[in-house]
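Onboarding guide, step 5: your first structure request.
Type a short instruction followed by the sequence, for example:

Predict the 3D structure of this protein.
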Amino acid sequence: MSSEPLTLFTTRFLFAGVLLLAFSLFQENPRLPTRKEWRQLTVFGALNTALYLGIFIIALREVAASITTLLLALNPLLISTISSLWLKRKIAAREWISIALGILGVGIATFPLVQNGYATLFGLSLLVISMFTYSLGAVYYSSVQWKLSRAAINGWQVLIGGTLLLPFTLYFEGSHTQYDFRFWMSLGWLVIPVSIGAVQLWLYLLKEDAVRASLWLFLCPVFGLIYASFLLNEPFTSYTAIGAVLVIISLYWGQRKRV
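The system replies with structure tokens like these:
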């Protein structure tokens, strides 16, 4: 193992933040955040990055990976519920149906893995808290009338999140990292396609509609299972196929335009 989890993720956030902020300097009218924007960025960075992934990494030591995959499906439900209560956003019946189909699909796809998995009550509690902070961060971002560019918002929030995680990383880890080829390749993948590419797209979708954007999160567990079958030689069962079909149906149903 080249790096412990907190070290890798904290390094990822710091690198991604610096790269995004450097990129934002070439956009129109770059500027530093105002006092109010600093508060908003700190709240978003704490919820979306530091608390969510910090707690998630700790939970991984207590819960089998298959169960963490299943619990990712809680995010669309949590985002929809928080949006309904906080933003007074009316959730259409077809969206609730889509969420139910997505959860059912993920449940079916991961059923064989959960049967052979394990978890502690402490670990499950941490996972639920982690998913809640991420969902709360998504709705918070959607609720703010941002004036900064998307690259600047993402850059500052991951940089703030990484900075908040840094003391915990140095205390709990920090001395066992091997800066070898595998470390830098893993860091490159997490920084460029994930923290920069995927998160930029995610922030765009959140501003369009947080509830409809959240439905795409059902693809994470399904793709996780598919990747595991190819990369880790885990079986691709009929449960996986049925679950994937239900997730695709749920996405189609939830993303349809009203007629």
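Each response can be followed by summary notes, for example: DSSP finds eleven helices and no strands in the chain.
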